[in-house]
């Protein structure tokens, strides 16, 4: 794109996924700001650029996970999905289509990883450096680095000595990996691990699954659409669903039933669970009883129901307690359930073996494979790490951004994230992050939140430029209050008891805290809009208005 070292931008966005492209489109085209995106990958799609491992697909069904702009989807020439839960290739094509409709590419510098940034108090501008040696100045820096841009690989000793190939799923090679007939290990049975396993089990020679915690996976109920069917959906209820996304807990068209499980008889509960189970997808997770994630009893009943369903598919007796133990390893749904299709059948194939890491933890990676406790060595050609991410904060702390006190965000957030409204942190003026900590990030599907939280940002930027605001940051008091609020409300739920990436507890050394707003999307939007309606001022935010600067 047309950008050089001397250019001074109004806004620099980092990341060209759902959030980044929405920001670019509106800041540039609706408000008229000089805006660019820097993107580390060679193309659009954010998480869907990087996650191209076998079986990678989204867990939100059409049309939840897309932009609501009719310019993109409406009419015969609008975007047409082929599958109810699209895979990564289709999602990448979708971004190409969005680019054509919104004309984004000319303002995106790809293959550009941002290394660091410092705020200059004199000019009130950020100086931003890229790994390839470029420096730009920008009034506002908007991080759209996503919840999962920093992969996490366990630090097993000996990994460097492994003579085969190893990959993290989110860094899968462009050209793919030949797995046919190979001896393959998969670490991790989160959403990613389940997808990889069910996809490759039939291709590989032998598959060894290293499981630490079983996934409470739910049936996806995938299906394909004809163009005609999709046209009918568009006419019938697309717009309604886009509206509904704004009103539900997690930005999906489905949401909790007002009924409490605790007030129902066992027979009523079974009938209720059966009904939401039949609907498939996330219904069993999100259209469940309103007290599902606060009442251990109700949650245990849901788990027992889930277990009964899943056991019917586990034909190898020795796997029953491994994949669906009688005692739940954590409350149901407090880790994101994977949506699976053939996972349990594939786990029972003869070429698939499960190693329980709770019984036999890894001692080291050897040149030939993996040695677990007790001295047993497994030999592999390929090791796949589906071990997740330094989620939510990792994409932000990964960049050496220095605040006005000279400290980096990484340093400041070491004892815990600080993120007023989930978007701003004290001593880092004019820096905003979207889909970051203490926002509904894990509980708001990406496309929905790119528009909801994204719109707040766009409105704020319009306000800031209209009013010559050159410097703005959260106060320490405001961010402290927000943090307490987020952690207190999550503390009342069962989510707080589980060591998940929602709680920052999946990466050793990271503080366990609520990285997510768990009061639901509508409450979040209400809070941030209230702050906006008070002029973004006083109580919560700090302004330093220098008129005539613009
Ligand atoms: P997740 O959900 O963080 O899952 C990571 C998996 O890797 C999970 O099963 C972990 O077990 C396992 N893990 C993590 N560290 C280790 C070590 N050291 N040894 C063995 N196993 C380990 O990441 P995903 O990529 O699957 O999904 C992330 C999100 O992407 C998902 O929620 C969707 O929103 C899309 P654990 O459960 O911690 O015992």
Automatic annotation (TrEMBL):
Superkingdom of the source species: Eukaryota
Family: Belongs to the FAD-binding monooxygenase family.
Protein name, as recorded: FAD/NAD(P)-binding domain-containing protein
Organism: Saitoella complicata (strain BCRC 22490 / CBS 7301 / JCM 7358 / NBRC 10748 / NRRL Y-17804)
Lineage, broadest ranks: Eukaryota, Fungi, Dikarya, Ascomycota, Taphrinomycotina
